[in-house]
Amino acid sequence: MTRPRSSRLRLRAVAVVVAATACAGGVALPGTAVAAPGAAVSAEAPADVVVPFRADARLVSSGPTGFLSVVGDTHYWTRYADGVETLLPRKGYWAAAQSDVLVWNEGTRYSVHDMARGVDAEPVVIDSAYELRGVNGPTLVMRDAANGIHLVDRVPGGDVLDRHVSGLPADTVRRVYSTAPGAVAVQTATVDPLKDRLSVVDVATGAVTATYDVHSRTDTVQVSAEHVAWRVDTDPDTTMVAGRNGGAPVRKSFWGPLVTGGWMAVSDGYELRQVGGGGSVYPLDAARQVVVGGDGAALVYGGTIADGRGLFRVSVGADGKAVVKKVADSGERLQLIVKSESVPTLVDFDREPRQEMSWEFNHQDVGLTVELTHTATGRRTTLNSWWAPDDFEGHVAWDGLSEKYFGTPNGAHTWKMTTESVFGTSVTRTGALTVVRTPKARDVTDNGVADVLVRDAAGKLSAYEVSQLRVLGRYNDCIEEGCRPTLGATTPTTLGTGWNTYTLMASPADRTLVGRDRDGVLWQHRSERGKLLPRTKVGGGWQVYNKIVGGSDLNGDGRGDLLATDTSGVLWFYASTGDARAPFKARKKIGGGWQTYNLLTAPGNVAGATGGDLLARDRDGVLWMYLGKGDGTFTARRKIGGGWQKYTHIVPAGLNGGGVTDLFAIGPSGSAMYYGRDSTDTPFGDAFKVPVNGDSTTYKSVF
Fold this sequence. Notes:
Blueprint lengths: L31 E3 L16 E2 L5 E5 L3 E6 L2 E6 L5 E3 L6 E2 L5 E6 L2 E6 L9 E4 L3 E6 L2 E5 L5 E6 L5 E5 L8 E6 L4 E7 L5 E8 L5 E8 L2 E6 L3 E6 L2 E9 L2 E7 L5 E2 L3 E4 L4 E4 L5 E2 L4 E7 L5 E7 L3 E9 L5 E8 L8 E5 L3 E3 L6 E7 L6 E7 L5 E5 L8 E6 L12 E9 L8 E9 L14 E5 L5 E5 H6 L21 E4 L5 E8 L2 E6 L4 E7 L2 E2 L3 E4 L5 E6 L11 E5 L4 E4 L13 E4 L5 E8 L8 E6 L4 E4 L11 E4 L7 E7 L5 E7 L2 E5 L13 E3 L10 E2 L1
Parallel strand pairs: 2-30, 32-38
Antiparallel strand pairs: 1-6, 3-4, 4-5, 5-6, 7-8, 8-9, 9-10, 11-12, 12-13, 13-14, 15-16, 16-17, 17-18, 19-20, 20-21, 21-22, 23-24, 24-25, 25-26, 27-28, 28-29, 29-30, 31-33, 33-36, 34-35, 34-37, 37-38, 39-40, 39-59, 40-41, 42-43, 43-44, 44-45, 44-46, 47-48, 48-49, 49-50, 51-52, 52-53, 53-54, ...
């Protein structure tokens, strides 16, 4: 089974500006310098130092001198120059894009801290009743009660400078986007409910420098030195891009942070695509997250095979080739590594119907395939993992069936786990396990699934798995990964040839077959580990019978028994002994008059009585049920219904999910599965058609 899967590990892309929810905090931001989680490391500037980056962190923003990261709700500021990491004391911050400025507030009191001045430097404090909508460098972008936009800042020791942005329609502001340093984008409503106005405001002057017509459902905007780009939430696959100073927008089919030189970092930074069209570069082997750095280049949390994982400064040179510099190291390698393994050595589907095998990796979303091989028969079962993009664990779930609905045989297995290629590397693991189950009714092949036994005209005996018959031709509407495909044909298991020596055959007990030859001798065949053992002689004189049927435990001793009707219409009961040397006790007469029936089947307990039951079809096609009393006798017959003359064979089909025996009926015009309902009034549900026609050549005997 193939599964669509991402070829790269990704996290959700962080917005170009991450505005953490402002939360209560003090005025100072001294922080706590903590030891680097790895070797000392580097700077976004052209230095050779590579600073540490916590492997479990998420990148929030980056400025010229350092970057902000978060683990859970704990924030850290790391300097590029020397790798010193500072634990920040608050839970939430407004981070100015491409800047070293962080802002937090307590009510109307805003603390603006320029991390480039040092973690112990006093912040600039601004008191304002306005609503904070963004941070652009040291400038607060705020909205007043009348929906007007203000640019508010203050130099250390100086007065607060409050500049109202002119040129915007009053009372119409929908959203404010603070992205590239020095520019703010403001979205305002128009009289047209479907059309808004997008204005780019110069932070230095407070003047509107460009305007664009946008859809009113626009909800994401970014501004770079060269371009303005926006998206509409009704059409997430469409991006509109225009020049920074105005002009007609151009439609694009990709999205990502705008970075220097007219490029966009798409696919979480895995690809840099030219906004004007024409080119793409793929600078890294893996990418999870991207923000825009202090110099306008992409800062990508990703990795390469050679350098491992960390933060990489990525841009495109004049020659159109990627310029990549590692600025922070997480200490992780891209090569795929198995960190732990959980595989059972003993599998018991009776105790746990759904078994799991799992492996923990150093990467997320690792697809894997597990192939199990039965040592005795060579039969294989293939299992595929489910897509789990945020999980470091790859696992398969095993219900004892293969992709073709075969039961997995009991006994010793070897297994082989193979991962999909991750960044050009893959892993293989092998091992062994043993499958054990208690014997199942009519499971001749020893794989936990009941079998319908079929002898063809040439004498070949085959086992058809009920698990296949139940789903044959049924459309599998499962849309999840790991679903089995629709089964178009059964794949029977050949048990042997030469079985046309028998004129009557039956299966009286689990993994036991009997056949009467032309001389009237009854022979028994037992199955062990999925294969039939040499036959043993039961005895002669069985030529007096015209029907033999087995499968129901009629006397309650836990063993399936044998029933036979003679040519005069008398029904006889042979109780099983469990001894292969003398498998049946002396016969007991049940009663006469059974010549009225042309078909018998003993499916076991189908209607909730104390003993095994018997079904009989008369010459008019009416099916009758005889409930077993548990002492080898039956209650008075109960009518099930007519129309059964279209079938040549009606046989037990194993237990359903409710623990009740089903029926499989087959004839020249088609087949059907009847689900047992554990009811004396309506013991079987409506027929579920199975696309198999029972010709006498392929299906001469079915039992």
